[in-house]
Each structure stands twice: as C-alpha cells, then as structure tokens.
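Async update (no meeting this week)

Hi team, since we skipped the sync, here's where things stand on the single-chain job. The sequence we agreed to prioritize is pasted below, unchanged from the tracker. I ran it this morning and attached the output directly underneath so nobody has to dig for it. Comments welcome in thread, and please keep replies under the output.
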Amino acid sequence: MASSEMEMDFTLSRAHGTVMVMTWVVFASSGILFARYGRTLMVKTRIKILGEYIWFRVHRLALLIAAIETLLGFLLVLVQAKGTWVDVNAGRLFAHSVLGGIIVYCSQIQVWMALFRCQPDGQYRFIFN
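Output:
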C-alpha cells in the first residue's frame, strides 16, 4: 500500500473547525453585541425596516446564521466520523464532543424559543425576559 492510501483525509474536520471558528467569532459575537449595544447606536434616528428596528434585524440574522452554521459544523464532523461517537477513553476529544453536542443543542433551542417568543407588549412576555 502506498502511504497516501493509509493517510486519513481530514478535510471535513478542517472544514468543521473553520466553520465553527467563523460562526462563533464573527456571527455569534456580532449578534450578541448588536443585542446589547445596537439599540443605542442611533438613538435619535430609530429607523425601522418592515416594522422592526435595524439593530433587531441584524441581531436576529447574525444569530440565525450562527445557529445554522453550528448545525452545519456538527454535521461536517459527524460525516467525517461516519456517524460514530468518540470513544469515552479519548480524553480531551471526548470532552470536546460532549461540549459540542451541548452547544449544538442549546443553539437550536435558542432558535425555537425565538420563534415562539411573544411581542414586547404581550401578556406572557415575562416568561421570555
């Protein structure tokens, strides 16, 4: 056998790392920062697009992209591993996979909670605040 046949192809693992770094460094942090500071950027000119403030649209779009790319990154590494989970004895790799699963779960729950969130003046808004 040639040495090239025995080497593993880590293309999908590298794509997983690239997608996750880009997702969490760019999109998730931008979405969080727009939620925190976007309201005060243009205090005197609160412009709305299709009935919602610009900061909220940017916040929602950035976090939606982050959730989709998190799922994409998870699927990339799952395809790389051919659907198998990391062995418990793998140490840091196992811890990484468990934390990754928790993060994917939380990011997807966040999207569903946002879909069912009521309007700011809704009767049950206190549940989401």
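Quick observations from my side:
Residues 19 and 73 are 6 Å apart (CA to CA).
The beta strands are 48-49, 52-53.
Reply here if anything looks off.
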